């Protein structure tokens, strides 16, 4: 039939060929097309229709045999050209014609849909037009057209025409996968060397681990689940951070009031107040603060371990006393120099300046100023002091320069010729007279003649000297007339508060004595209590209540004392943490009820006119306890309010999910984790095909969860990139909580970014549509994954016990893959029986034209 059809078509084509270069088909050949517009549109329509299915499907390795008009009909060229335009993901690896069987066989790597649609397209009749002459150089010499186009050639006559179509096609997908512990690739059992050959490696060595696509999907799912657990943890901490930012001002207020209940509160107020440089001493404050924490806890036995702080504080305190002493001396120096400067400034109006004695007095003041080493090292006065010293130095250098000029002039005068009418000793006599006049002059007589040892100044010199004098005077004023932030005299305030420093000195001396006694194994509990109970605000309040109030019973009195002791333990055992809030509120509520229950009649003072509540309104310690209570109530209320919000979707900017939304994501992860644990591939490879299908479903599910939990994005303003506090006071729970939240968030963000990179790499491997993966790249990937997961600080991520268990379960699964997957090496005696089993696993499908 084929020979007759071809003969008829060829007989018609022997007629003279058209030379009309405007013919459409001629134009197609000239443009190097190998198929007509209709054929290309058919291909494009099918390709677009199956696009989504092709993208989703994996590649398969298929052997396809074609029967029909496929021999001697240019079918091979038709197959090659059409498949090239038709395949989106696939390709023809090779093909061959078996003439004796009337079959064309092709090995194709493509999706199942692509192969099936290609077969259906090739079952349509196609004509192949061959043109050997009459075409320009470089033009195509063949064109595939649909059979229906034969009547549209319009006189275009090719040299030869072939017709081809497929009547029957058979596809055979050789088995790839695991079988009885063996790895099968395209119908062949793989050995170590075969694996290397198939994967373009010479040989699989220990460092090049072997993974199957099913195993990679299990790793992918557990990696993805780990990321989701960390993302949920991250979002939970952003939610906690939202609450913290609402509470932060109240927390700081609570801590400020607690600090004001400390033993050295009043002293600390001065040592930390930069508004008075004469009392400010941060180094001394830090030493005493560390001691305060030890002393407040009442554990006198540990004092020897902190003796370095005692001696350091003593040294710093002595240095501060020296500083105050120097400042007093500076005040005297300032008064003397400023008085002299004002006198010299007055003399400038008559264009004269200092006598030698006045210059000597200035020099003496300058030398004295240089000796104030404590002032020069004070952090708040250092710059002003150095500016003053610099200005004074310039003044002295300028005066020295003027003295040199004066001496030079006098020398010139002595060398110059004398007039005969003036005696040689007249100049010296004049100088002596002027010296006597200078000694006899007073500051109240500026109009007297200028003495001979004073400098007569030019206008320029007068301006320079006045400027330098004013700079020195201003420098002294800056330091000697210090004001506090409230505008008070800093020196006077410092002198008033020196008793705080002397009391501290006494306490440090007694501490040193106690430490020596403790080192001698002496019990110093009583001396320790006596030393600090005088400053203990809770003891003071307890004693005050005992003196003021008539207690109903001894039990009531003891209860009040116990409450105050408990409050002391709670508040002075810093940091004050959230779990102690309820206990504190119970204590303060009892104390407040007790105070409110005592009217005027309950007061011990016979002529009392105020109730206990009215008296306590004036007590600083009691009021601070009430302030702390108010702050805690605000903190609790704000936390409760934020936790009760169902969603923050209406907020202008995304800060965090709500608690209910986070709980919803957690429930989803719990359900997903149960499915993941129920679907295991490692160690159960015999059922891998079913498992892989389950993995594919779980991949869709995990991607959906990820899309929703990452759907809302934070702006840079709402994202934490670094810790906000450069240093942390470990006695402040607010600072500790903030730092811990920020560290957790930063760590989680880093872990997530790293793991997403690994997930994308695993995706790339899975996108290769190969069942077996091996080599340096996969080995390196798993080394990086296990290294990251091994070095992840789970405690820093601050998981709940539930999320930590789920996280560790997935970690354990991934770590099983550290050595790659195991497989059996086929032995010679097993090959025949194994090959028969493999052949039975081949998938054969037959397609017939309608």
Q: What does it look like?
A:
This protein has 850 residues and is an alpha+beta fold. The protein has four domains: 2-173, Alpha-Beta Plaits (2-Layer Sandwich); 212-249 and 651-820, no CATH class; 250-306 and 518-633, no CATH class; 316-415 and 425-496. It is 59% helix and 8% strand. The strands form three sheets. Strands 1, 2, 3, 4, 5, 6 and 12 form a seven-stranded antiparallel beta sheet that branches. Strands 7-8-9 form a three-stranded antiparallel beta sheet, with helices on one face. Strand 8 and strand 9 (188-189) form a beta hairpin. Helix 11 runs antiparallel to helix 16, helix 14 runs antiparallel to helix 16 (459-480) and helix 20 runs antiparallel to helix 21. Residues 438-461 are annotated as: Disordered. Residues 440-450 have a biased composition (Polar residues).
Give the gist of this structure.
With 850 residues, this protein is of the alpha+beta class. It has 31 helices and 12 strands.
Strand tally, please? 12
The secondary-structure class comes to alpha+beta
**CA-based shape:** elongated
Rg value = 49 Å
> Beta-strand percentage?
5-15%
What's the story with the biggest beta sheet? 7 strands, antiparallel
What are its keywords?
single chain, 850 residues, alpha+beta, Alpha-Beta Plaits, 4 domains, 7-stranded antiparallel β-sheet, 3-stranded antiparallel β-sheet, 12 strands, disordered N terminus
What is the element layout, followed by pairings?
Layout: H1 2-12, H2 24-30, H3 37-49, H4 51-56, E1 60-69, H5 75-86, E2 91-98, E3 103-110, H6 112-122, E4 126-130, E5 142-146, E6 160-173, E7 177-179, E8 182-185, E9 188-189, H7 192-198, E10 210-212, H8 213-259, H9 265-271, H10 282-296, H11 307-348, H12 356-369, H13 373-377, H14 382-415, H15 426-440, H16 459-480, H17 490-496, H18 498-519, H19 525-533, H20 537-548, H21 554-572, H22 581-597, H23 612-616, H24 620-643, H25 659-678, H26 688-709, H27 733-766, E11 772-774, H28 776-790, H29 794-797, H30 801-816, H31 831-840, E12 843-848
Antiparallel strand pairs: 1-3, 1-6, 2-3, 4-5, 4-6, 6-12, 7-8, 8-9, 10-11
Helix pairs in contact: 8-24, 8-25, 8-26, 8-27, 8-30, 10-11, 11-12, 11-16, 11-18, 12-14, 14-16, 18-19, 20-21, 21-22, 22-24, 25-26, 27-28
């Amino acid at each position: 039939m084929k020979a007759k059809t071809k003969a008829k078509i060829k007989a018609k084509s022997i007629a003279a060929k058209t030379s009309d270069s405007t013919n459409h088909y001629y134009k197609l050949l000239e443009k190097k097309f190998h198929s007509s517009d209709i054929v290309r549109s058919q291909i494009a329509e099918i390709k677009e229709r199956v696009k989504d299915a092709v993208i989703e499907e994996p590649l398969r390795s298929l052997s396809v045999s074609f029967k029909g008009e496929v021999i001697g009909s240019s079918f091979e060229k038709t197959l090659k050209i059409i498949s090239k335009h038709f395949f989106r993901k696939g390709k023809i690896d090779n093909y061959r014609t078996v003439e004796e069987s009337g079959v064309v066989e092709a090995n194709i790597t493509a999706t199942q849909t692509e192969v099936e649609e290609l077969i259906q397209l090739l079952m349509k009749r196609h004509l192949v037009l061959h043109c050997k002459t009459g075409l320009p150089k470089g033009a195509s010499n063949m064109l595939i057209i649909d059979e229906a186009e034969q009547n549209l050639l319009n006189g275009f006559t090719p040299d030869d025409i072939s017709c081809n179509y497929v009547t029957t096609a058979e596809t055979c997908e050789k088995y790839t996968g695991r079988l009885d512990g063996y790895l099968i690739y395209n119908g062949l059992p793989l050995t170590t060397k075969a694996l290397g050959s198939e994967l373009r490696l010479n040989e699989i060595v220990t460092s090049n681990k072997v993974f199957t696509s099913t195993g990679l999907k299990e790793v992918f799912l557990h990696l993805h689940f780990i990321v989701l657990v960390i993302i949920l943890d991250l979002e939970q901490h952003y939610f906690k951070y939202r609450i913290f930012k609402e509470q932060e001002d109240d927390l700081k207020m609570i801590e400020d009031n607690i600090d004001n209940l400390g033993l050295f509160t009043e002293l600390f107020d001065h040592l930390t107040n930069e508004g008075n440089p004469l009392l400010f001493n941060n180094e001394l404050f830090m030493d005493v603060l560390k001691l305060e924490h030890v002393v407040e806890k009442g554990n006198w036995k540990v004092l020897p371990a902190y003796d370095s702080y005692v001696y350091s504080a003593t040294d710093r305190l002595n240095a501060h006393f020296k500083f105050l002493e120097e400042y007093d001396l500076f005040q005297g120096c300032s008064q003397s120099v400023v008085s002299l400067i004002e006198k010299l400034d007055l003399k400038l109006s008559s264009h004269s300046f200092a006598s030698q004695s006045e210059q000597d007095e200035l020099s003496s003041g300058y030398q004295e100023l240089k000796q104030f080493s404590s002032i020069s090292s004070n952090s708040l006065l250092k710059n002003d002091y150095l500016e003053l010293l610099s200005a004074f130095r310039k003044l002295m250098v300028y005066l020295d320069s003027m003295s040199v000029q004066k001496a030079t002039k006098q020398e010139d005068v002595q060398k110059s010729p004398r007039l005969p009418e003036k005696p040689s000793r007249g100049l010296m006599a004049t100088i002596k007279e002027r010296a006597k006049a200078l000694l006899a002059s007073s500051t109240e007589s500026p109009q007297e003649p200028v003495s001979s040892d004073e400098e007569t100044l030019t206008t320029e010199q007068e301006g320079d000297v006045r400027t330098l004098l004013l700079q020195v005077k201003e420098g002294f004023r800056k330091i000697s007339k210090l004001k506090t932030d409230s505008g008070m005299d800093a020196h006077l305030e410092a002198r008033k508060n020196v008793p705080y420093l002397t009391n501290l000195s006494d306490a440090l001396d007694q501490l040193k004595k106690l430490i020596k006694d403790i080192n001698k194994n002496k019990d110093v509990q009583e001396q320790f209590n006596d030393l600090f109970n005088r400053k203990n605000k809770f003891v003071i309040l307890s004693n005050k209540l005992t003196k003021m109030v008539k207690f109903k019973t001894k039990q009531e009195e003891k209860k009040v004392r116990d409450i105050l002791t408990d409050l002391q333990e709670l508040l002075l055992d810093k940091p004050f943490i959230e779990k102690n809030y309820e206990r504190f509120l119970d204590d303060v509520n009892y104390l407040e009820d007790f105070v409110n229950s005592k009217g005027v009649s309950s007061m011990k003072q016979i002529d009392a006119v105020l109730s206990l509540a009215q008296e306590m309104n004036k007590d600083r310690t009691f009021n601070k306890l009430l302030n702390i209570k108010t702050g805690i109530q605000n903190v609790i209320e704000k936390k409760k309010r934020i936790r009760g919000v169902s969603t923050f979707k209406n907020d202008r900017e995304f800060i965090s999910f709500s608690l209910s939304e986070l709980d919803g994501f957690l429930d989803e992860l719990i359900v997903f984790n149960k499915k993941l644990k129920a679907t295991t591939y490692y160690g159960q490879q015999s059922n891998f095909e079913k498992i892989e299908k389950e993995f594919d479903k779980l991949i869709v599910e995990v991607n959906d969860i990820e899309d929703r939990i990452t759907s809302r994005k934070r702006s840079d303003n709402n994202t934490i990139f670094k810790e906000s506090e450069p240093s942390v006071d470990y006695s402040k729970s607010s600072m500790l909580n903030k730092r811990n939240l920020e560290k957790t968030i930063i760590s989680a963000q880093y872990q997530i970014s790293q793991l997403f990179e690994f997930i994308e790499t695993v995706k790339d491997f899975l996108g290769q549509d190969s069942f077996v993966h091996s080599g340096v790249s996969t080995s390196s990937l798993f080394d990086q994954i296990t290294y990251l997961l091994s070095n992840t600080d789970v405690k820093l991520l601050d998981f709940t016990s539930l999320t930590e268990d789920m996280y560790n379960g997935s970690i354990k699964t991934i770590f099983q893959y550290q050595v790659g997957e195991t497989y059996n090496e086929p032995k010679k005696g097993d090959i025949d029986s194994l090959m028969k089993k493999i052949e039975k696993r081949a998938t054969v499908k037959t397609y017939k034209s309608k």
